[in-house]
Every structure is written in C-alpha cells, then in structure tokens.
Specification:
alpha+beta
Amino acid sequence: MTYKYTLAIVHAQEQILVINRLKKPYPGQWNGVGGKVEPHETADVAMQREIQEETQFRPNDYQLALAGILDWHIDGRYIDSIYVYLAALTKAAPPIYPQMTREGILNFFPLDWLTQSANLGVVADFQRILRPALSGGKQRYNTNFIDERLVDFKVTPLIM
C-alpha cells in the first residue's frame, strides 16, 4: 500500500526539530516536517526530499528509519495514512535556530516540553506519537480529529 504523506521526527537526542507552519493544516502550531509523496517517489525518497526542502539537512546528516504509519481521520472519515519516520541527526545542528523558512519557523525544543499535555501549541497527534516513536519499534497510530481537535488516538503494533 502506498500513502500520500510523510512526517518526520527530526531529533538530536532529547531535542526535536519542529516547524511552526504558515499554512494548513494546523497553521501556527508546532509539527514535524514532511509533506506529499510524489507519484515517481518511494516514501523514503519523498521523506529525504521533504527534510532537505524544509530543513536543509541532507541524507548524510541523519539516519532515517520508518517508525510507523499514522491513519488520519477527520470527523470519523478516513483521509489518508502518513508514513512516520525518525531522522536521527548524525552531526551537530548549526546554532541558527529559530530559523524562518518559506514553510514556517523551525526550532529545536526538548521532548519534555513538546509532550506536555497542557502544551496546546503542538499539533495533537504529533505530540502523542513522539514518545512511542522514539522508544523504538514500528507502531500504527489511529487518529480522529473534529474541528482540528484530536478526539481519538490509539497505538497498536505495526504489522507489515
């Protein structure tokens, strides 16, 4: 099965690189980098392209691994599934953050800050997948949003 979207958790230990997007979905909230898989691309190639476009990191700057699949629902209606990747930085990030890009503001934040339940500035499903994805193993994340509010979230092992 091929899905349309990718999402990366770009990290250096407990620091996660996130983007405060300028456009939909969820403008003004912190999220992982990612985007669409083009018809001629594999999901891995699309993820590498999106990481480079949005962060300027090249594939030799990180180790990429599939962390799972996120099934995205709005109002109970299936929208699509998203490939979720871990991109572990293998070199030190330049000290130029926060950084404005054409997609939004990039910045590193501690994992503990991003995953606080009271932190409403992080896209809810991204916030919820961070710890399970970083703990290892491939997971399937099932989400349902109503009016951009996460109302259902389930994690199960990914069976491929």
